[in-house]
Design a protein that fits this description.
Shape: elongated
Radius of gyration: 27 Å
Structural class: alpha/beta
Oligomer: single chain
Low-confidence stretches: none
Mean pLDDT: 85
Strand content: 15-25%
Length: 210
């Protein structure tokens, strides 16, 4: 076989519902020879046991080793992550009522959690007293209930939440990720980093000669 270059690009984590994982599942592959590219993609990397959920940490060095078993003269270039977390989720029947129940519980938790947080903040700063004093300073009359300031504050708070979370119903106000999405991606990255570090220290990572 003549010398050829094989380029790999893998993300930090992948999730599958099939047990047999091949190279094309965990990395994008490019080679000037389409046949070699196809054959490399078929290389088997691992097979998960038939359990409900599982995960493995896979080193790119292991991928390189498996490729060179078949193509000894190949030059392999890794353009992605050095370690990959592979999750296996055993497929289970989806029940619509369970999905709807989960959505409802999340919505209720977010709604009441945000409401209690806002009420707690308003109570801490005594927002009603602040509005009452502002009303008296501007009009010279003491308020005996909700004022225009309270109404404007409520409307402004609603608009601010929509703008901050970058959502209005099913429509996005812009193409940028929402703050919640950013935090979820950071959390996912931290979790994967912890798993990779832990697997390395415990020598549980699928690496060369393993």
């Amino acid at each position: 076989m003549k010398e050829t270059d094989i380029y790999l690009k893998a993300e930090q984590s992948y999730c599958f519902n099939h047990r047999k994982i091949s190279l094309s599942d965990v990395a994008k592959i490019y080679c000037s020879d389409p046949q070699i590219e196809k054959e490399v993609g078929k290389i088997s990397l691992l097979t998960f046991p038939d359990v409900k959920n599982d995960r493995e940490v896979l080193s790119v060095m292991k991928i390189v080793e498996e490729i060179q078993k078949k193509y000894k003269e190949a030059h392999i270039w890794n353009l992605g992550e050095a370690d990959i977390v592979v999750y296996y989720k055993r497929p289970v029947p989806i029940k619509i009522w369970q999905v709807n129940l989960k959505i409802l519980l999340v919505c209720l938790t977010a709604f009441f959690g945000a409401g209690i947080s806002i009420m707690g903040y308003n109570n801490d700063i005594d927002i009603e007293q602040v509005f009452s004093q502002l009303h008296w300073m501007v009009t010279g009359v003491k308020s005996d209930g909700p004022t225009v300031l309270s109404l404007c504050y409520s409307i402004g708070l609603t608009i601010g939440i929509i703008v901050f979370f970058n959502h209005a119903s099913k429509k996005r106000l812009s193409d940028e990720p929402t703050p919640l999405e950013v935090q979820m991606r950071l959390y996912e990255k931290d979790v994967n980093g912890a798993l990779i570090t832990g697997a390395g220290r415990k020598e549980e990572e699928i690496d060369v000669d393993s």
